[in-house]
Amino acid sequence: MIKLSEISTDPPKGLDKKEAREQTEEWARQLGEIHERLIASQSHSVLVILQGMDASGKDGAVKNIFRYCTHNNFGVYSFKKPTEEEFAHDFLWRVHRQCPAKGHLQVFNRSHYEDVLIQRVHRWIDEKRVRQRLEAIDAFEKLIQFDNNTVLFKFFLHISHDQQKLELQQRIDEREKNWKHNENDWKEREHWDEYMRCYEEVLNFGSTPWTVVPVDSRWYRDYVISKTMVEKLGKLELEYPPLKK
Fold this sequence. Notes:
By secondary structure, the protein is α/β, with parallel strands linked by helices. 47% of the residues lie in helices and 12% in strands. Helix 1 runs parallel beside helix 10 and helix 2 (58-65) crosses helix 10.
């Protein structure tokens, strides 16, 4: 049972920052090598879900962790407000279209979980619809894993209330971050407690477990995500195919 209030948003005491960064660099390189074998083998696909509150570091995670992955067969997709066409379909229609084919690694910067988070917090859907959508998401994730050999990673970027305030303020105070500023992020922050309640239900629901990643120190965020991915993908023992005759 995941209880966010009981999970620290800081790195564990005793973990050396310099050594962790060096290890993260090695894992990032290994992830790039694994990605190349993924492309060559065409046996699996990889989907990475990065979900978290505003300013939890999703963009930075993508930039740092996947920097050695080739541009071929690698993509990042961020789900925005649905278009009219997307609204005319079921809520997972637009998501399924962005799922990776075999040999591809895809990152969702925010994901289908927005449809049971922000919509729930603002009461745009009722609790019956929330439950139905959670069950649909679980079935959908089972489908892509077992029918298309998709390796699924779900990371919740766990930021503290105080750290989020600092990060959002930096977007106002630091010129190079001004472009990230969105006044609506401050409005959503007012619903913090309700978001935490909804996130906890999401994190404790379904067949595919989440990894809760403390992100108040960004270097530890990269350490946890890269470690988790390399350890799991390494077990696939992806191989380059032999020369065709």
